[in-house]
Amino acid sequence: MPHPPLPLQPPEPSRAFPLAGATNFRDLGGYVGHGGRAVKWRRLFRSDHLAGLTPEDQAVLAELGVARAVDFRGKAESAAYAYALPGVAYHPLHIEPTVVQRALELQRTGRQLTAQDAVGLMQDTYRGFVRDNAPRFAGLFRLLLASDAPTVFHCTAGKDRTGFAAALILLTLGVPRDVVMHDYLLTNTLYQRPPGMGSHAPEEVLRVLWRVQEEFLDAALHMVDNDFGGLQAYLVDVLGFDAAAQKELAGRYLQAA
Fold this sequence. Notes:
By secondary structure, this protein is an alpha/beta fold.
C-alpha cells in the first residue's frame, strides 16, 4: 500500500514587500521565539521612511492592516520628508542622527574620512541608541503593549535606529541572537540608497554609512551585556519593562503554542 501523501506545508507569507516608494519594508513575522512559538505575521513591520509611498504602496499597507506608524527620524528629517497616511496613526519618537554631524566635524579638522573611521562612527551611534535613546525605545514598547494593531516602525533608511528597535523586539520575544542578526543584515539585500545622497564623501565611506555590518549591532548588544548586565536587566532597569510586561508582549506577538 502506498503511503498517503504528506500534507503540504502552507507557504510562508512574504517577508519583504517591493514597494515603489520604500525599498526596506518588511515583516518581522515567522521567527521562532520563546517556547518554540513563532512571531505572528502581519503585526510588526520595519521600514525605511514612508514619505515616498505611491498610492499603490499605500493600498498595500491598507491591505496589510497597518494602523500605526512609529517614526524614529530626527525633527529636521521628519519635517523635510513629512507624510500622513489615511487610517494610520502617526507616533514620532525622535532620535536625532549623529553620524553625519560627527563625520563633518572630522572632515573640518582636515582629515580625510576612511572606511574604518566610518565603522567607528557607526558603532558609537549604536552605543548611543542603548545609552542615550532608551526613552524612545521604551516608548515603542509601550505602544506595542497598548495594542497589537499592525504597526510599522521606521527611520530614514530603516537600517540603524529601526535595526536596533527590531533587534530589541525580537530578542525580547526570545528569538536567538544569530537569527536577529540575520534579519538585521537583510537591509544589505533590500535597501537601495537614494541617488546623490552624501556624494561629498568617498565611496568607501558611503558604502559603510549606507549599509549595515555585524559590528554595528554587536557594539550595541555588547554594551547591553557589559554595561547594563544583559538584556533582562536592560529591559527592566532601563526600559522599565518588567517580567509581566515581557510576558504580555509575548502573548500579543507570539503565536499560541
